[in-house]
Write a structure and sequence with these properties.
The protein is α/β, with parallel strands linked by helices. The chain contains ten helices and 16 strands.
Length: 340
């Protein structure tokens, strides 16, 4: 298993990094977030690339896919190759496997469900429990949340959010997945519990739904919570998620999303985990929430808005240091010493 040292490094020319995904926000942000974190440590130029396979070939296993099978709308994947290839999601696996040995350091984010030795570095969630010499485990998944970034992006919404009664409560609501569901009755129960908790402290609510939130659940929760001081975002206009995280005193997160939990825990605000209805194996989510609880970041929501403090998680930065260490270990002359 990989371990990151504190070796400092300076790059005499900017590293070229490709952040490759299928373009879905939750996947793309993992590759891009890790690439940006590398860029906070050493000079680099990051290029985001979106790749998709033609529908006729998408079902094929990774070993049988060839670049000629890519959808014509995909971004070009051709020389000159980058210094570091960071990819996330199933769609990138065939390309990542082919890329190894062509020059770039190949970094795969998430559990590839393939032999980790096919990649130079696998940045994997600890709750997935994968093993291998190239595996670097982190709590949750890489993301783009940093204190500076959310503060900058919050300025566009400051006039609407800054004056809201405190404590301000951000609620990040997920939806149906292989492991969880949000049926109408449960959505109504959650909305009632959230409203009661916010009203009890005289606070305000900033709520956003995910793409997976069922329309019926979205409507039920909006009707119940829209009367509270605050903002239930309806999905139109610019996304206020980063602003919600910046202005929040508490963060409520449904238990169905590892990404949302990891992002929330990077803020240092109390993270309250909202229960969902199980519809499949959910052991890895339980392991993640136990990890977050052990680190002082998260607790199960029990109807009250408790306050506590913890050191904000900086797992994306820790993974970035591991990537730089792996690059340096290859004996690349441009990485010599510098920022840590």
């Amino acid at each position: 298993m990989l371990g990151a040292s504190r070796r400092s490094c300076v790059v005499t020319r900017p590293l070229r990094i490709w952040a490759v995904s299928d373009g879905r926000a939750g996947i793309a942000n993992q590759a891009l977030g890790l690439a940006e974190a590398v860029g906070r440590l050493v000079p680099c130029a990051v290029t985001a690339k979106t790749v998709r396979w033609r529908s006729a070939f998408d079902w094929l296993p990774a070993a049988l896919k060839a670049p000629a099978m890519l959808d014509p709308a995909s971004d070009p994947v051709a020389p000159p190759w980058p210094d570091i290839w960071i990819a996330a999601g199933r769609a990138t696996l065939p390309l990542s496997i082919r890329m190894k040995g062509r020059g770039p350091l190949v970094v795969q984010v998430q559990n590839p469900r393939l032999d980790p030795a096919l990649f130079d570095v696998v940045v994997a969630p600890a709750h997935d429990g994968i093993q291998g010499d190239t595996v670097f485990e982190i709590t949750g998944s890489p993301h783009r949340i940093t204190p500076g970034r959310i503060a900058d992006e919050a300025q566009a919404f400051a006039a609407r959010l800054e004056a809201l009664p405190r404590p301000r409560v951000a609620a990040l609501i997920g939806g149906r997945s292989t492991a969880f569901d949000l049926p109408d009755t449960h959505a109504a129960d959650l909305a009632a519990q959230i409203a009661q908790a916010v009203e009890a402290v005289g606070g305000s609510l900033m709520l956003t739904f995910s793409r997976r939130t069922p329309e019926a659940a979205r409507a039920i929760m909006t009707r119940r919570l829209d009367a509270l001081p605050g903002w239930v975002w309806d999905g139109t206009g610019d996304n206020p998620l980063f602003a919600f995280l910046h202005f929040a005193d508490h963060i409520l997160v449904t238990e169905d999303s590892a990404n949302m939990a990891a992002e929330a825990a990077s803020t240092g605000r109390p993270v309250h985990v909202l229960p969902m209805v199980a519809r499949g194996p959910s052991g890895k989510f339980a392991r993640l929430h136990a990890d977050l609880a052990a680190r002082g970041a998260a607790r199960a929501f029990e109807g009250e808005l408790e306050s506590w403090r913890y050191e904000p998680l900086a797992e994306t930065d820790r993974a970035a240091r591991a990537v730089i260490e792996a690059w340096s270990a290859r004996g690349q002359p441009q990485v010599v010493s510098g920022r840590s």
